[in-house]
Amino acid sequence: MATTRYYLALDLGAESGRGLLGRFDGRHLTLEEIHRFPNGPVRLFDSLHWDLPRLFDEIKVALRKAASGGAKPEGIGLDTWGVDFGLIGRGDTILGNPVHYRDPRTEGMIELACSMVPRERIYEVTGLQFMPINTVYQLLAMKQAGSPLLDCAETMLMMPDLLGWLLTGRRAGELTDASTTQLLDARAGAWSDELCEGLGLPRHILPELIAPGSVLGTLRSPVAEETGLPADTPVIVPATHDTGSAVVAVPAAGKGPGSAPDWCYLSSGTWSLMGVEVARPIITEATYRYNFTNEGGVDGTSRLLKNIMGLWLVQECRRTWARSGREYSYEDLIPQAEAAPAFRSLVDPDHPSFLPPGDMPSRIASYCRDTGQPVPDGEGAFVRCALESLALKYRWVVERLEEVTGTPIATIHIVGGGARNALLNQFTADATGRPVLAGPVEATAIGNLLMQARARGRIGSLAELREVVARSFPVTTYEPSESGAWQDAVGRFGALVPGRG
User: Fold this and answer.
1) Which helix (H) or strand (E) is 32 found in, with range?
2) How many CA atoms are closer than 13 Å to the CA of 174, on its beta-carbon side?
3) Which residues form the Carbohydrate kinase FGGY N-terminal domain (predicted)?
4) Domain 5-236, what architecture?
5) What's the whole-model pTM score?
6) For 182-195, what is each residue's pLDDT tens digit?
7) Which CATH superfamily is domain 242-308+397-484 in?
8) Which of 79, 157, 263, 408 minimizes the number of CB atoms within 10 Å of its CB?
9) What confidence tens digit (pLDDT) does each residue in 248-266 have?
10) What is the enclosing helix (H) or strand (E) of 260?
11) Domain layout of the chain by residue ranges
């Protein structure tokens, strides 16, 4: 009889976090959610922050629940969103709560950085998409504001590394999350001294880098005593950037990362991250023009992808309606969207006006008026506008991925929470003219757990890991339907998308 091994995934997203216990018998993985908690920004004066002490306390609750359930995990793995960080000063002092990536402090920082180091050179070194939320622009904003925290800092740790340090006491930076900073030399896999010097940023605060699948350390004695887990429980870094873990769990077969696969992934949630897994970064004039990004993957691979605003548009619409007393679940809104007129209004999901939190319906309405389109009429029309626009943006990205890799993309794998959105999945198949395979929903946690199992020698190659995913979790297939209306919409949408997309 096969021995069942236990692993604990701590998966933190921008809206919620979970502790999931994974049971692995060598062929199949099963999941049990043992703790869930809300997450979100906290406004202090004029700044948005993450509540680090509360997040760490919730993590310890998950550890206690795992211990009380009688399972002895072979590993604990932690993943979060990218770009955000905390600073540590002398004597293990935490220098303030981490600032949320949607905080407006980075306005104008891309332009400032490009006046110090040419934009083309920044991209040539990092291969990273220019987005105001990137870590480098957050640090530059602190420098411009004369923040005393930079002067006091010994170490900068990205969010998963910061939480890992609180668990183990070790300061280290996992590579996939470090690659979201726009301070990493993509080809060398090392911090860029050139960019730190050119932008006047403190190189000494950047930590040592470790690869996904490494053991960060074991639980600090106070954490072990407080949670009831053994002090020798290893904390293993998966791909700590949540998208990196999600891509690990794409149940795809076929061409591997030797050149470019004949499938692409779409990690669908608050953000949509769409791309291909390649053997090395692709940094060319075309990827620069289209503002594609190269982020680190497992086994030395690179994730060539595009960050797209994603279901944030719908989430912020729901929050806006809820503030006025109109509470809608997704189950309420999807039938309304299906009943709304098709292709009445389209938006570029990545328009800068949609990035900050706030009144999203008003912003969509303003965008439509500014582009000479009808304003959506009712909640269902707003949601349909967002979903159709996302599907058309996915087509735009797929076509450019094919161009820059020279490889046709036959299939789209959708993983993450958005895999539940049957309407968006069908729209994606129809808009792109390609089959969509949706699932698993819990891809990030699955990739986290199975990378831990691999680190403990229970799984071999990445291909074997993906076979475990395919055996363990079902997928739903959406076939494209023939529709001239989608082809007509492609031209309208193309006129809305700037050259960089």
Assistant:
1) strand 29-38
2) 37
3) 6-248
4) 2-Layer Sandwich (3.30)
5) 0.94
6) 999 999 999 999 99
7) ATPase, nucleotide binding domain (3.30.420.40)
8) 408
9) 999 997 555 445 679 999 9
10) none
11) 5-236, 242-308+397-484, 312-391
